[in-house]
Amino acid sequence: MKQYVIDELRPKDHHKIKEYLDKTYGPAEMESIYWVPLAVEVLTEIQHQHSDCQPFFFAIDLQEDQLALELLVRTKSRVRCACIGDAAEEQRIWIMDIVDAIFKLLDIVT
Questions:
Q1: d(CA 110, CA 57)
Q2: Where are the domains of the chain?
Q3: Does the structure show a pLDDT above 90 at 108?
Q4: What predicted TM-score, i.e. pTM, was given to this entire model?
Q5: For the stretch 54-70, what's the b/e string if a residue is b when 16 or more beta carbons lie within 10 angstroms of its beta carbon?
Q6: Phi, psi at residue 65, to the nearest 5°?
Q7: How far apart are alpha carbons 8 and 100 in whole angstroms?
Q8: How do residues 81-101 score in pLDDT, each as one tens digit?
Q9: Which of 15, 42, 102, 109 is most solvent-facing, going by the fewest CB within 10 Å?
Q10: How much is the mean pLDDT over the chain?
Q11: CA angle at residue 102 from 68 to 42, to 5 degrees?
Q12: What whole-number distance in Å separates Cα of residue 56 and Cα of residue 83?
């Protein structure tokens, strides 16, 4: 699986990120996984067509010393479907910009 990883997080930065993610996206599921909803504007054609599968998400895995962003678009309603798969280029840019904006907002230097 493709990932965007930011490693060597300091404990105080981990705490700030966790606090932000909890507040913005709700508490982590499965210990360290946060679900970030994908903006409708960046859905692919097939994702737009699959209204039963919506909403779509990216998963962020926040560990003590790293943040890993899975570059896979998922839905919580199904395990397999044609609309689930690797993020399109526009989606990758969108979610990486979200993560970069979080770090900037929290004044975390990577």
A1: 25
A2: 3-105
A3: yes
A4: 0.90
A5: bebbbbbbbeeeebbbb
A6: -120, 5
A7: 16
A8: 999 999 999 999 999 999 999
A9: 109
A10: 94
A11: 75
A12: 9
Cβ atoms 36, 58 nearer than 8 A: yes
The answer, yes or no, to whether residue 37 has pLDDT greater than 90, is yes
Q: Is the peptide bond before 27 cis (omega within 30 degrees of 0)?
A: no
Instruction: Work out the angle at residue 89's Cα, subtended by the Cα atoms of residues 69 and 45, and round it to the nearest 5 degrees.
Output: 110
Residue by residue, DSSP assigns 33-99 as EEEEEPPGGG--HHHHH-TTT-SEEEEEEE-SSEEEEE-EEEESS-SS-TT-EEPPHHHHHHHHHHH
Q: Which of 1, 62, 2 is nearest to 35 (CA)?
A: 62
Phi, psi angle pair for 59, to nearest 5°: -105, 135
Supply the pLDDT for residue 63.
96
